[in-house]
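Z., the sequence and structure:
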Amino acid sequence: MTDPRWNSGGWDSHNSGAWDSQNSGSWQPPPPPPPSNDPASPVRPYAVTGGRTAPKVKLAMEALVSSATAEHREFSHITPEYKAISQLCLQVRSVAEVSALLRIPLGVVRVLIADMAAEGLVRVHQPQLEAGRPDVNLLERVLSGLRRL
């Protein structure tokens, strides 16, 4: 099996820093990745949550989150993840939306939002359950939305 970077003249330098047939004998390192403004962090999720995998308070993925940071003027003590969540939740969002939009795993977002709620940085509005079951109206709206997809 041949390497996809190999062509008949040598290594393709456009794919990696390897053999360049144009500059016979010279090796060039691959270019650095472009800087990213993506809020998704290259830091491992367990490092962001301090090793915790479960939130202190159980959060449903459909729970709604709104930012309460307008009441807090001091932002120097909060992490970049907290800032991103606070900014995103200036509009009410579900926990699942926050996870998807920030490209952070759902479990990590649950831990972060629970911590932020404990500090008063966000407000969490849990769905009302009747006898441990979701509201029928909510399920009908979800089904209707899925049918429109």
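The radius of gyration is 23 Å. DSSP finds five helices and seven strands in the chain.

Let me know what you think.
H.
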